[in-house]
UniProtKB/TrEMBL annotation:
Topology versus the membrane: Multi-pass membrane protein
CDD domains referenced in this protein's UniProt entry, alphabetically: TM_PBP2 (cd06261)
Stored InterPro entries: BP-dependent_transpt_permease, MetI-like, MetI-like_sf, OppC_N
Organism name: Enterovibrio coralii
Protein name, as recorded: ABC transporter permease
Segments forming domain ABC transmembrane type-1: 99-299
Organism placement in taxonomy: Bacteria, Pseudomonadati, Pseudomonadota, Gammaproteobacteria, Vibrionales
Length: 313
């Protein structure tokens, strides 16, 4: 009798044959949004190689080139496609570097939100009782304040406690912590609701009977079944974190002037917009809107894909 050896499909093959990829190929908006996000990410990663100039290198900046219009306008300079800002920096270069900072802050803040929200949500849902009550009351108190209010208060306290120079040196880390701490309840409540439904199922009871410890059951058995809503929230929260950073920078509580993000570029240009130098604010603003738009479109698509009432096999 001959035996036929069957090779198990690789993870990549399994992904290409999955329903997730099938629906992705059928949705042109999702494909276009993903391609746009990958483009923005690649531009941010390779900004030092792609940017015409380094906006952080003061030796290459000439104040005499300040507020030059885009190259296609009258008085424009062909060296500066999108014009220059009030310090003579190339707008296109500052957008590329600013895009990198905005994405780092957005992704870093969401990573911190994920960590806090997952740990707190799993603990509240799995243990219940007083642990659940205390943790969820803390989340309710924080949710009673707007994200921007919490971020403004915390960033102002940081600046007053450590000084503007210290804050500027660690501005990226500070903003990641501020925005991350302000938004974790969104994850915690979602994870808790999923855990409450999952912990009553047979596989959890079987794990408890086998004597597995609570952390192993929570993170190795229950958490994988909570990933779908977490993934959907994460896409939306990245966009929210980027907008929060932009708003804080616009208010002067975000990135310093010498380390421009998209928000700080918009803030710088707003001062000069009424004098006719509209390009300093317009181009960073357009890029920020497009970045947030494609992330939100991806989030909407993921929400629909994981909703069985919308997508059916």
């Amino acid at each position: 009798m001959s035996t036929v050896s069957s090779k198990a499909p690789s993870r990549w093959q399994s992904f290409l044959e999955s329903d997730f990829f099938y629906y992705f190929k059928r949705d042109k908006v999702a494909m276009a949004s993903f391609a746009a996000f990958v483009f923005f990410a690649l531009v941010a990663i390779f900004a030092p190689m792609l940017a015409p100039a380094n906006p952080y290198d003061l030796t290459t900046i000439d104040i005499m080139d300040s507020e030059l219009p885009p190259s296609w306008m009258e008085w424009g300079d062909e060296r500066f496609l999108f014009g220059t800002d009030n310090q003579g920096r190339d707008i296109l270069s500052t957008i590329m570097y600013g895009l990198r900072i905005s994405l780092i802050i957005g992704l870093g803040a969401v990573a911190l939100q994920l960590f806090l929200g997952i740990v707190i949500g799993l603990s509240a849902g799995y243990f219940g009782g007083r642990v659940d009550s205390v943790l969820m009351r803390i989340a309710d108190v924080q949710l009673s304040f707007s994200t921007m209010m919490v971020a403004i208060i915390v960033s102002a306290i940081f600046k007053a406690s450590f000084g503007s120079e210290f804050y500027s040196k660690y501005a990226i880390l500070m903003l990641v912590v501020i925005i991350g701490v302000a938004e974790w309840p969104q994850y915690a409540r979602t994870v808790r609701a999923t855990v409450l439904a999952e912990k009553k199922k047979e596989y959890v009871e079987a794990a408890q009977v086998m004597g597995l410890k609570s952390p192993r059951i929570m993170f190795h058995h229950i958490l994988p079944n909570c990933l779908s809503p977490i993934l959907v929230i994460s896409t939306v929260q990245v966009a929210n974190a980027i907008m929060s950073e932009a708003a804080l920078s616009f208010l002067g509580l975000g990135m310093p002037v010498d380390m421009p993000s998209l928000g700080s570029l918009i803030s710088i240009g707003f001062t000069y917009i009424f004098s006719g130098s509209w390009w300093i604010t317009a181009f960073p603003g357009i890029i920020l809107v497009l970045l947030v738009l494609v992330i939100n479109l991806l989030g909407d698509w993921l929400r629909d894909v994981f909703n069985p009432k919308v997508y059916k096999g």
